[in-house]
Amino acid sequence: LPPALVSPPCASLCLQAALEVLRHSQSAACARLCQALIGYLVPPGHAPGESPLVSALEDAQRGRLVEALFGAAGPRCLRGLFREHLRGRLLGVATHRLANHGLQRLLDHAPRDVVGEVLEELGPALRQPLARGHPGVLTALAGACRRHPPLQPLALRRLLEVSPAP
């Protein structure tokens, strides 16, 4: 995608709408648009230890586009984006004032194995996003675990650990 198609705020809104429409129509064009956006937002050859996806999530305009991408991408795509760019960085994403919204959207659409990995990595530190005023991270994680019953016991234990003692 040429940067001119993504940079202006109105273009980003149009791409978000296009992703939503294509996702609902179940068109093959949705996967092609997702791949084109990934190629733009997460260019190959980034420096080791850096994540252009996390940088995009931390930006107001590009973050909205990534959120729409998470809603339209298929499980294999989400799994790849998570494992390459978000694994090991979840606490920073969950506590960031903008990026946490992208994590919530990922959890809304993630396959069970990704939700399980998020629960394992972020579960022991769930107090931190809550302390930063991001209860939506906990809500999204609980909702994702509700959709995947084998994850519910661990999710419940982690959520109870966050609750203040009486």
TrEMBL record:
<dbReference type="GO" id="GO:0030688">
    <property type="term" value="C:preribosome, small subunit precursor"/>
</dbReference>
<dbReference type="GO" id="GO:0000480">
    <property type="term" value="P:endonucleolytic cleavage in 5'-ETS of tricistronic rRNA transcript (SSU-rRNA, 5.8S rRNA, LSU-rRNA)"/>
</dbReference>
<dbReference type="InterPro" id="IPR001313">
    <property type="entry name" value="Pumilio_RNA-bd_rpt"/>
</dbReference>
<dbReference type="InterPro" id="IPR040000">
    <property type="entry name" value="NOP9"/>
</dbReference>
<dbReference type="InterPro" id="IPR011989">
    <property type="entry name" value="ARM-like"/>
</dbReference>
<dbReference type="GO" id="GO:0005730">
    <property type="term" value="C:nucleolus"/>
</dbReference>
<dbReference type="GO" id="GO:0003723">
    <property type="term" value="F:RNA binding"/>
</dbReference>
<dbReference type="GO" id="GO:0030686">
    <property type="term" value="C:90S preribosome"/>
</dbReference>
<protein>
    <submittedName>
        <fullName>NOP9 protein</fullName>
    </submittedName>
</protein>
<dbReference type="Pfam" id="PF22493">
    <property type="entry name" value="PUF_NOP9"/>
</dbReference>
<keyword id="KW-0677">Repeat</keyword>
<dbReference type="GO" id="GO:0000056">
    <property type="term" value="P:ribosomal small subunit export from nucleus"/>
</dbReference>
<dbReference type="GO" id="GO:0000472">
    <property type="term" value="P:endonucleolytic cleavage to generate mature 5'-end of SSU-rRNA from (SSU-rRNA, 5.8S rRNA, LSU-rRNA)"/>
</dbReference>
<dbReference type="GO" id="GO:0000447">
    <property type="term" value="P:endonucleolytic cleavage in ITS1 to separate SSU-rRNA from 5.8S rRNA and LSU-rRNA from tricistronic rRNA transcript (SSU-rRNA, 5.8S rRNA, LSU-rRNA)"/>
</dbReference>
